Prior knowledge:
Radius of gyration: 18 Å
Distance between the termini: 41 Å
Helix content: 55-70%
Shape: globular
Number of strands: 2
Order of helices and strands: EEHHHHH
Structural class: mainly alpha
Strand order of the largest sheet: 1-2
Amino acid sequence: MAWDSASGAAAPDGAPVMGAALADSPSGAASLADTWHALHEAAAIVGALAGRSVAEDAGASPAAIEAFPETIFHAGGWRLALAQQGLDDLAAILETGVSALLAVSARGRSPACAAAALHDEFRAARAGLLALVAPKPVRHPV
């Protein structure tokens, strides 16, 4: 197993270490933030197709959403590697989902139900990503 001390990730010998390039890149935080914001722009469009307003996007605080890219970048290690994989997965889901919604709409059908399901998937995936940087629970002595 190869171990990358910068990212804290392990990979089989000869395999690239997930997150290592991002952690070592000076523009890594900016790239992560750009991806995060682009995903939210796409999700806003999906939400609009579902007939949802931005105010209905409950489940995460706006401050936590805005701070995620910087916070996860500074967390580094396995958290950053897992977040990067999650962002890549979410981008693939939204890209194909939006294409399907546009195809449905082009046929004169309402994409509202499918858009609502896709928007729910986005929110669930985002909650998982945000959990990577959630504060550790405080343990009180018994």
